[in-house]
Every structure is written in C-alpha cells, then in structure tokens.
Amino acid sequence: MGLDDTAQLALRNLTSVPVLAFAIAALAMALLKADLRLPEPVYRAISFYLLLAIGLKGGVALNDSGVNGVLAPAAVALALGILIPLVAFQALGLITRLSRTDRGAMAAHYGSTSLVTFTAAVALATAVGLPQEGHLATLVVILEIPGIIVGLALAKRQTTRTRTLIRRRSLVNAGGPSSKEPDAETPHAPETGTPREGGWAEAVREVLTGPSILLMVGGLIIGFITGPTGYEPVAPVFTGLFTGALALFLLHLGAVAGSHLGSIRRAGPGLIVFALAFPLVAGTVGVLAGSAIGMSTGGAAILGVLCASASYIAAPAAVGLALPRADGGLCITSSLGITFPFNLVAGIPLLVALSMAVNPA
Q1: Which of 89, 144, 283, 360 qualifies as a FRET site for 153, CA 20 to 30 Å off?
Q2: How far apart are CA 125 and CA 35, in angstroms?
Q3: Vertex 150, ends 148 and 155: CA angle to 5°?
Q4: Of 236, 203, 144, 207, the residue nearest 322 (C-alpha)
Q5: Rg (CA), the chain
Q6: How far is residue 22's CA from residue 349's CA, in Å, rounded to a whole number?
Q7: Angstrom distance (rounded) from CA 273 to CA 334
Q8: From CA 256, how far away is CA 32, in angstroms rounded?
Q9: How many CB atoms lie within 10 A of CB 346?
C-alpha cells in the first residue's frame, strides 16, 4: 500500500461526520469557550446505546461464525493486555519524572481500551470494505480488564513499600522495635489528611460491573442467542442510527478534550512524546500479532487500534478508587486530550494502512 493510498485513507477518516464533529467541538471549546457538551442524561443514554449496539452486532456475528475462531485472538488479546501496561510503565520511567504511583495509573489507562476509538476504527474499516471477525467486541472486554489490573498492581507495589518504610521509620524514631524486627502489632502509617488507597476488590468490582463491560457482554450474549433472525427487527435502530449516534458522542468528547488542551503544557515534553509515540508502537504490535494468527485485514487493524487506544472511562473510575493519590487529571489530559484525538486523526488510518500492507488482498 503506497503513501497515496494511506493519505486517501487518512483523508477519508478526517472528513467523516463523527471525526469532524469531534474537531469542531474541540476547537469551539478551546478557542471560543463555547461548550457543546451534551446534557448528562443524553450523553449517558448515547453511551449505553453504543455499548449495547457493539455487543449485539458482535454477538450476531459470533453466532454466524462460531466460537472456535475466537480462542486464538482471545489468548493474544489477554497476553497483550498484560504486556502493554508493563511496557508503558517502563517507558514512562525512562522519559518522564512521574512518580511510580502516577506511572502505574497511566499504565492502567494505556493498558485498557477506548470504546469510541474502537468504534471509529470499525466504522473506517467498514467504510473501506475490509473484512472483520464477529468476535472483535469480545476482545475489547478481554483487553479492558487485565490492563487496568496490571497498572494498579505496579502502582500498589510502591505504595505498599512506602507504607512499610514509613511505619518502620516511625517506630525507630520513637525508640520502638528496630526495622529488622517489625512488631506484629505495628500500627498503620500516621494519618496525614491524604486519602488512602482503596482495596483491590473495590477497584476490580468497579471494572467488572461498570456499564461498559456489562452492556457489551450483555449485548454479546443477546446477539449470540438471537442470531441474525432475532436481530433483524431491531437492526434499523442498532445499525441504521449508529453513525449518527457516534457523531453526537464525539461532539461531546470533542468539547471535553478541548477543555483539557490548556493542561497539555503541564504534562511536560516526555509525557507528550509518550502519548503520541506509544500508541503507534503498541498498535503496530497489535496489527502484527493479529496478522500472525491469521486474523482478517480489518480484524488485525482493529486489534492494533485497541492496543493503541487509552481508556478515559473505565480506567479513571478504577484508578480513582484504588489510587486516590494518583494525578487523575494528568492521566485524562494524556489519554483524552492527546492520544484520543491523535488516534482519530492519524493513528487509526495508519494502523489500517499497515494491516492492508501486511495482509494484501
């Protein structure tokens, strides 16, 4: 695939209604302070619609193709869901001065996935006629969960060590047991007025019971049970209106991203480089991995886009519960203010072009 074809693919994506809606809302917020965000009930309803629609269509396709073909992609997605946050954590340590807690929080965001980035990739792949597997929605769920858990684990490891050091130093300074012989009744670190990290169970429960997982898994189950015949009566709603709903959703997210543009300078050059370069690296790995196990051109491209995306819904909720000391604003600025628009403009068409080059028809 030549440069001209890649440029045409990027132009087609840039001039689509959903992407233009995102750009206009972002510019209106950043330059004119014009807030085009949807009312919260409308935004929530459209979110639920998109999640259920993706799950339903994936379930119907899975019913049509069978479940055997999902095993290898699911195993690859699980491995990538563990690998990506580990690499992100190490990369952030090399090019930024973020604390271990903030690096873990950021790794959780980049190890997880973005539903809207996935949806935009599906829309572009469909528009250019690329074949796709029916189980791709399943991969969203598989990638979502381990990425967040690994990121939290990396950050929690440091906070546990920090508490132990504080506890031991407090005892030594008070003339208590030495640091080599910690007392079994040692109290927790003294209260400082700062929030404590939440429990693992609460954070994991937040991920598993969040609307994104429940609606997509529920849609997959419904679509798989009903099949094409059962889906046909509701197809005008969940297929015919999908692109319009996505445009409204991206209009809202454009305004949200525009409100974060002023915070990009606070991120520092290292984090900006990471937010732009890491998605391309992770996405390339995803495309190559998908191609290696025989996924279709569209399927490998979309797996790559999932690896390149960063969460701004599920991960912030889990990080807020488990790591309240982490800089959540910086994570959102990076994932939603930098990576998300970059993927919409350049990342998705580049990864689709890569998949088309690796898997020529």
Answers
A1: 283
A2: 31
A3: 95
A4: 203
A5: 22
A6: 16
A7: 10
A8: 14
A9: 16
Residue 55: how many other CB atoms lie within 10 Å: 28
Closest CA to 341 of 285, 277, 278, 276: 276
Q: How far is residue 279 from each of residues 105, 191, 270, 276, 346, measured CA to CA in Å?
A: 16, 39, 14, 6, 11
Neighbours of 215 (CB within 10 A): 21
Sketch out the chain's domains with CATH numbers.
Answer: 36-155+202-358 (1.20.1530.20)
Amino acid occupying residue 316: P
Q: Three-state SS across 166-215?
A: HHHHHHHHCCCCCCCCCCCCCCCCCCCCCCCCCCHHHHHHHHHCCHHHHH
The length of the chain is 361
**Which pLDDT tens digit goes with each residue over 93-127?**
999 989 999 999 999 999 999 888 998 999 889 88
Least Cα distance to 44 among 313, 261, 345, 290 occurs for 313
User: For 154-210, how does the pLDDT look when each residue is reduced to its tens digit (9 = 90+)?
Assistant: 987 755 455 554 455 555 455 554 444 443 333 333 333 444 555 566 767 766 777
Structure tokens belonging to residue 207:
């991920």
Contact between 144 and 113 under an 8 Å Cβ cutoff? The reply is: yes
According to DSSP, residue 312 is labeled S
Give which of 251, 255, 309 is closest to 280, Cα–Cα. Answer: 309
Q: Label residues 150-168 b or e (16+ Cβ within 10 Å = b).
A: bbbbbbbeebeeeeeeebb
